[in-house]
Amino acid sequence: MNIDIMRLVVGPIRTNCYLIKNKLSDGVIIVDPGGDEEVIENRMLAYHMKPVAILLTHGHFDHIGAVNQLKSRFGVKVYAYKDEKEVLERPDINLSSMFEGPMSIKADVYLRDNEEFELDGIKFKTIYTPGHTIGSCCFYIENEKVLFSGDTLFAYSHGRTDFPTGSEGAIIRSITERLLKLESDVKVYPGHEDETTIGREKMFYVIN
After folding, report:
1. pLDDT value of position 155
2. What is the 3-state secondary structure (H, E, C) of the chain?
3. What is the predicted pLDDT for the residue at 204?
4. Alpha carbon distances (Å) from 92 to 28, 86, 165
5. Splitting the chain (208 residues) into consecutive groups of 10 residues, what average pLDDT does each group show?
6. End-to-end CA gap in the chain
7. Tell me, what's the pLDDT at 206?
8. Would the pTM count as exceeding 0.85?
9. Residue 184's pLDDT is what?
10. What is the spatial distance between Cα 88 and Cα 56, in angstroms, rounded to a whole number?
11. How far apart, in Å, are the Cα atoms of 72 and each of 51, 100, 117?
12. Do residues 185 and 143 make contact, with C-beta atoms less than 8 angstroms apart?
């Protein structure tokens, strides 16, 4: 692999925050900084990483808890899917008003389905995967066969759909029609718990 991926488990419900680093650079892309901003910052400083951007798979409080602090501290842009704007900005929809205290996030870049973009020499593709929330998305690094799936796809499971803007039918379609069409050896880095592969999930969804 030409990238390094570090996982930090952060926040009140143990969310996976990922630090993605091009091995040829000291830049780092932060995926879903759900809290514990000091832990995230200290890890980056320990490895002499310079934040380049923040990517959000969706807008729930446990995935955005450290966004405002890190954005202010490092001056980086926040990327999210275009349909997630209201979830990010409204505490009643992103659930922060019920758990951590009201929180509102404004993204700087709103992405579209299949949109490709490059950060610090790493090429990402946006895959729109509604269901957990209306604007949930996944970030795919095709040349590395790596997928950051947020709360759309877990190991042998998927995210809840009983929160505002969620849909069980939509998340199943997102998984079966979008994610499981990827190659079987794609490694999946989910928003909670351990990694999996598309191949393993293909077997699970066929069986069930």
Report:
1. 96
2. CCEEEEEEEECCCCEEEEEEEECCCCEEEEECCCCCHHHHHHHHHHCCCEEEEEECCCCCHHHHCCHHHHHHHHCCEEEEEHHHHHHHHCHHHHCCCCCCCCCCCCCCEEECCCCEEEECCEEEEEEECCCCCCCCEEEEEHHHCEEEEECCEECCEECCCCCCCCCHHHHHHHHHHHHHHCCCCCEEEECCCCCEEHHHHHHHHHHC
3. 81
4. 31, 10, 11
5. 95 96 96 97 95 98 97 97 98 91 95 98 98 98 98 96 97 96 97 97 72
6. 33
7. 58
8. yes
9. 96
10. 10
11. 12, 19, 23
12. no
What CA–CA distances, in Å, run from 179 to 61, 154, 176, 184, 188? 24, 12, 6, 10, 10
Residue with tokens 């951007």: 53
Best CA proximity match to 175, nearest among 124, 117, 125, 136:
136
Q: What would the two tokens of residue 201 be?
A: 């999930």
pLDDT at 202: 93
Q: Which sign, positive or negative, has the C-alpha torsion 8, 11, 15, 19? A: negative
Place of tokens 């999930």: 201
- Residue 81 has which token pair? 């899917």
The Cα–Cα gap between 11 and 73 comes to 19
Report the sign of the C-alpha dihedral through residues 193, 12, 17, 132, in that order. Answer: positive
Using the structure block, give the residue that is written with the tokens 């190659």: 183
At 4, list the tokens. 């390094």
Q: Which amino acid is at 57?
A: T
Q: Report how far residue 190's alpha carbon sits from residue 67's, in angstroms, rounded to the nearest whole number.
A: 18
Q: What's residue 100's pLDDT?
A: 72
